[in-house]
What we know:
The complex is a heterodimer of chains A (386) and B (412). In chain A, strands 2-1-3-4 form a four-stranded mixed beta sheet, with helices on both faces. Chain A has helices at 5-17, 19-39, 59-70, 83-92, 105-110, 126-154, 159-166, 183-214, 217-223, 228-257, 266-290, 294-311, 323-328, 333-346, 355-370, 372-381, and strands at residues 48-54, 74-79, 97-101, 116-122, 169-175. Chain A is elongated, with a radius of gyration of 29 Å. Helix content of chain A is 67%, strand content 8%. Chain A is of the alpha/beta class. Chain A folds into two domains: 5-41 and 182-381; 48-166, abc type-2 transporter like fold (3-Layer(aba) Sandwich), CATH 3.40.1710.10. Chain B folds into two domains: 2-52 and 192-411, no CATH class; 60-176, abc type-2 transporter like fold (3-Layer(aba) Sandwich), CATH 3.40.1710. Chain B is built from 15 helices and five strands. Chain B has a four-stranded mixed beta sheet, sandwiched between helices. In chain B, strand 1, helix 3 and strand 2 form a beta-alpha-beta unit. The longest helix of chain B is centred in the last third of the chain and has 45 residues, at 367-411. The mean pLDDT of chain B is 90. The interface between A and B is large, with 114 and 108 residues. Strand 5 of chain A pairs parallel with strand 4 of chain B, so a sheet runs across the interface.
Amino acid sequence: MKSLSPLLLRELRRMASDPVYWFCMVLAPLFCYVFFTSMMASGLPDDMPLGVVDNDRTTTSRQLVRNLDAFQQTRVAACYPSVSDARRAVQRGDIYGFYYIPEGTTRKAQRQEVPTVSFYTNYSYLVAGSLLYRDMRMMSELVSGAATRTVLYAKGATEKQAMAYLQPVVTDMHAINNPWLNYNVYLSNTLLPGMLMLFIFMVTVYGIGTEIKQGTGRNWYMTAGGSMLRALAGKLLPQLAVFLLMGTLCMVHLYGVLKFPCHCGLPVMIGIMSLFILAAQGLGVLMIAALPTLRMGLSFASLWGVISFSISGMSYPVMAMHPALQGLAWLFPLRHYFLLYVNCALDGYEVMNAWPYVAALAGFALLPLCLLGRLKNVLLNYKYLP
Amino acid sequence: MKQKLLKYWKQSYEDWNVIFREELRNIFRDSGVLIFFILVPLAYPLLYSFIYTNEVVREVPVAVVDADRSATSRDYLRRTDATADIRIAAYCANMEEARELLKHREVYGIIYIPSDFTSRLSRGEQSYVSLFSDMSGMLYYKAVLTSNTNVSLDMNARIKVARAGNTTQEQDKVTEHPIAYEEVSLYNPQNGFAAFLIPAVLMLILQQTLLLGVGISAGTAREHNAFRNLLPVSRHYTGLLRIVLGKSWAYLLVYIPISVYVLGVVPRLFRLNQIGAPHDIALFALPYLLACIFFAMTVSVLVRHRETCIMLIVFSSIPLLFLSGVSWPGSALPAFWKGFSYFFPSTFGVNGFLKINNMGGELTSVRTEWTVLWAQAIVYFLTTCLVYRNSIIASRRRFIARYRKLKARKKA
Lengths: 386, 412
């Protein structure tokens, strides 16, 4: 076997001389790692602004507002004189929702006339809306309970008796392996590898596409001694080395530095990450082989890379998508990576429990072997049309 | 004097016209630019909306371990099964079995009813139902939690009424809820994913495709023109304002129909929220487009090759979406990133569009965003002029150097 060194040297020289490689392989992924994890560093958004319309103006209503403010996620940012004013504040984006206590609430409650309080949540901001909804609903239940509890205590009930009367059935929620509902754990674990994958797609396409565009394909092929397999290995190995380093860095950052749940241990996740990187490279080769102009190949890579985030099911579950999309999701490596991460790091099951996804990633990684003939043909016969 | 001025204006107008037409011709002749100016804005919103079109996740499969096996526990389970959020996919004999199903992702949650569920209730003590949820997606958690909370609260109310021994319906009502409450979902009544995410994506698509298209056409210009110059050397490409305005007008002309489609037609196709006044949206979109165009033109000087800009810009879409404060609340954005987000028109464009289109705000409710977008448009217009000016001067220098060199060679 002839040595690969002239090929590797040629590739390293190309990579070192083009700033685009530096940007896409090192700088931009690092930026993304820092960006997403520092943006969601608090885990759950705290102190989100909420408005109050208190037309009752009694000690009871003020107590309610104070209690609402005491919730971790909620901050009572302002009191508004009327619902219309509060609605306008929602439209301006000052607050994500408001709590409305109509005039006479306390009086009616004491007379047992069943007053109604209401809360308005702006679900245009889904995360903020959902979290505030939870607090406001809990508050409403507590208010109702507090009124009854006072009566029960007055009748001489113990606290235990009162609670059993107020809330006979209690639900006890367990969020398995992410008990803090940490959004950083929930999103960054897939966003970071997803960004890396996008860059791998692009760099792989760019590496081969520039050879075609600049007409150096024949030279590349000849340096490899007329073997497409060797040519491809010479091109992809240096890139692979950098990406493996970046992938390991990502895993160390997530599980070593930020201490996200990782029940399978760091080495297993680095292994999965490495397989994922190989899969992304394999798909990248397919992209440029299918559309052998640089800009079409890159457009393909961008489309696939960006859609991956949605179709991987990391935020919106795949099971809620159209059946056609559920099938299509198999063609996205990020989907498999996501399921493997959930299986191994988050839930701590053995890798074999999720073997179909390992197989799928391996399939992507082996794709280039089926494309050698096509690539050779493209390199030697394809004329670049600007 | 007057004649001279007239001639100057006529010349300027003619140059502007030539540059404008030339840029339009470039756009429509270059398939690379066309992909980003026409194809992506046309197709991408459809694809995205299609992915999220079901809005919410329904009937999440859960497993049940009913150790109590009483009429009350079965009643509880029947009621949870009847909610829209979850579906009982399996009744398991014990937790081990349920956990196995969870492991194989056949269910996404477990409801466990302990054996003393009914006896505790009968004794007048609190009974506990344990819920477990897979945390690979927040929506699974939400589905399990919401359905069980609703059912348990409803059941609590009925138990309370039964115990109270009231005589009238009015008394029952008071017992259930001494203070009733009402929840109102504003601007996204189905709490859906598409209604919240798609409008932001639509606005972002406008900015990103402009960045890509303008970048590609700048890259092409550099590859075609002599000495890798951004602008061709020609009689018409002289006045700075003419060049910048001529080019930006061409982009604006292309993007007006695109914006109408993206902001007006797509939400209608997928029945997303669309309660803003069309003229407010139009008045808001104008500074947004201008800010994006000049921002794109400023950035485009960095592009040396056609394809580089794809590699530099595409990835930014995801961070920019998060910076706009739609998914991760803007109020929780760290100050540094908040400041960083002010550089991009999309931050204000997305929020302003949401406020008008989704929340039915008027132009006054987006006063801040509107003003900032105009400010951005002006600032980026000035930076565009600056970088184009530098580029023109640099290209002239190169020409003169080349001319001198040739002259010297001729002499020799």
